């Protein structure tokens, strides 16, 4: 199936047996995941477009409705290696806005994607983007990293990952950069084993990488060709299409995964039908014969088909797998793969439901009201953020308030601002507002739901006439594991007129 054909795949419900954990009957639906890996060689994304790389070159979008002329991926997983990690870039990293994530975000926001999590370890980077309609269903988002290079000291080699649960299934996205050079095969195998041994999550049922229903493992894995051919001889063989199959059979990753089963044997991969993606002379698509051409940049996947509902097996298909030779800033070519997979859209975690709020009075105290569903387990570090209605990242909040005031930082900690996934820090411009008086009221209702009212202080700085919304973050307080428990409708902020007063929800 071509990438164009895959892009037109609808979400088609499969069989619907009884026994759903959500409303109505259980079902499977098809979703799309688009994976990118690129060793960018410390280059910056200046003067290049990512539209072709992200498969958007033929996609048009209606600016008003945001409808497109193609069925877009539900998830983008972007993995980069050798991202510039000089000190000035590490400062940028404090703001969770490295140049590559920023470049992708500014493009993908036009197609209604939200940056949900980024994890960076030195030059190794993974950035996850999800279509807006799925964001509020993301559960247990967690990032992890493992160093392998130089005894795990420098972090120049290893893996970073993001995992989350969506529609009843656990997904893990692992980006790796393994040891280089032809003769370092044993070290690459050892890198893989170290990552598995040291990469752990803090989510029930999904403690290890391969516990997940779906695993995507990609990056500059640095596997080379077996044999003693010279660089020139390999290049000449590549010019003969009839020799492609023989060359790929000599690929070290193919050998250790399929033949010897020393590493990555749990994963699957459609063998590359594209030319080797390393090593090129920068600025060209000509091989640099200082190294033998090799398929160093790879994308693999795994599925645990029986992890969930009996008789409703999960499945995945690798619909496209290709390189992008038009990108020449690095000595590697980027590689992408388009997948379809099955999820359970009726499986929804319990959460909170915000009452409608049409207007936020700037300069007044405003009261947020929501109902906790009976099964919702409130965490000690939960907080509610105010976001622009067209937010492009979960780090885009402009103000926030902790749900449990007794658990929140005191006014002396007012310089602390939460990263949605980490311990509060001072790197964002959002503001936390704390008052000594009780600003939270709770009422237990007959249906076992709890009605909660939470006051936001009068110095929340919103822009007059702009639209905003609220997002409830459930934080376990353990290694940044975070879930989204509810998203409000859109409301407008307006400047105060007349004497100060408190603006509250009014429930019809």
How many runs of DSSP E, i.e. beta strands?
23
Give the helix tally: 8
Question: What is the mean predicted local confidence, pLDDT?
Answer: 85
CATH topology of the largest domain: Deoxyribonuclease I, Chain A
CATH class of the largest domain: Alpha Beta
The backbone outline, from C-alpha atoms, is elongated
Which architecture of the largest domain does the CATH hierarchy give at level 2?
4-Layer Sandwich
How much helicity do the residues have?
10-25%
How large a portion of the residues is in β-strands, by DSSP E?
25-35%
Radius of gyration: 24 Å
Largest sheet: 7 strands, mixed
- What is the CA-CA span between the terminal residues? 52 Å
Q: Which blocks of ≥5 consecutive residues have pLDDT under 50?
A: 1-24, 89-95, 406-417, 423-430
Q: Structural class of the helices, strands and pairings?
A: alpha+beta
What is the CATH superfamily of the largest domain? Answer: Endonuclease/exonuclease/phosphatase
What is the domain tally? Answer: 2
Biased composition (Basic residues): 426-442
Region (Disordered): 1-25, 408-445
Family: Belongs to the inositol 1,4,5-trisphosphate 5-phosphatase type II family.
GO biological process, one term: phosphatidylinositol dephosphorylation
């Amino acid at each position: 199936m071509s990438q164009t054909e895959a892009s037109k795949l609808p979400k088609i419900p499969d069989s619907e047996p009884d026994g759903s954990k959500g409303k109505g009957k259980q079902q499977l639906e098809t979703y799309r995941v688009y994976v990118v890996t690129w060793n960018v060689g410390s280059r910056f994304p200046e003067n290049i477009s990512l539209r072709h790389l992200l498969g958007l070159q033929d996609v048009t979008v209606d600016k008003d409705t945001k409808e497109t002329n193609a069925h877009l991926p539900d998830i983008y997983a972007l993995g980069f290696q050798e991202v510039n990690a000089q000190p000035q870039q590490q400062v940028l990293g404090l703001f969770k806005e490295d140049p590559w994530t920023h470049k992708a975000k500014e493009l993908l926001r036009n197609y209604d994607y939200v940056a949900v999590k980024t994890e960076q370890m030195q030059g190794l980077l993974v950035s996850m983007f999800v279509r807006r309609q799925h964001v509020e269903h993301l559960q247990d988002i967690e990032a992890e990293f493992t160093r392998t290079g130089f005894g795990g000291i420098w972090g120049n080699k290893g893996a970073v990952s993001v995992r989350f649960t969506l529609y009843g299934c656990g997904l893990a996205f692992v980006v790796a950069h393994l040891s280089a050079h032809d003769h370092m095969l044993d070290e690459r195998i050892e890198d893989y084993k170290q990552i598995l041994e040291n990469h752990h999550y803090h989510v029930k049922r999904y403690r290890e990488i391969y516990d997940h229903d779906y695993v995507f493992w990609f990056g500059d894995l640095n596997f080379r060709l077996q044999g003693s051919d010279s660089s020139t001889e390999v290049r000449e063989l590549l010019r003969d299409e009839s020799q492609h199959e023989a060359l790929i059979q000599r690929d070290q990753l193919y050998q250790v995964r399929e033949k010897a089963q020393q590493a990555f044997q749990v994963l699957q991969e459609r063998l590359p039908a594209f030319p080797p993606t390393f090593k090129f002379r920068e600025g060209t698509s000509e091989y640099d014969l200082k190294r033998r051409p090799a398929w160093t940049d790879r994308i693999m996947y795994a599925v645990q088909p029986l992890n969930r509902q009996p008789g409703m097996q999960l499945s995945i298909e690798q619909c496209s797998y290709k390189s992008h030779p038009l990108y020449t800033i690095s000595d590697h070519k980027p590689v992408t793969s388009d997948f379809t997979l099955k999820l359970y859209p009726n499986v929804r975690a319990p959460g909170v439901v915000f009452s409608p709020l049409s207007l936020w009075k700037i300069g007044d105290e405003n009261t947020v009201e929501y109902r906790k569903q009976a099964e919702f387990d409130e965490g000690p570090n939960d907080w509610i953020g105010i976001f622009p209605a067209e937010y492009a990242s979960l780090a885009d909040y402009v103000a926030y308030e902790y749900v449990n005031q007794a658990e929140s930082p005191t006014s002396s900690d007012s310089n602390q601002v939460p990263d949605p996934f980490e311990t509060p820090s001072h790197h964002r411009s959002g503001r936390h507002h704390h008052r000594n008086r009780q600003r939270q009221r709770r009422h237990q209702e007959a249906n076992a739901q709890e009605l909660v009212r939470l006051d936001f202080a009068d110095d929340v700085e919103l822009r007059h006439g702009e639209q905003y919304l609220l997002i409830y973050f459930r934080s376990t307080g353990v290694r940044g594991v975070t879930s989204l428990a509810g998203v409000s409708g859109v409301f407008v902020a307006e400047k105060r007129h007349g004497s100060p007063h408190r603006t509250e929800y009014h429930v019809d």
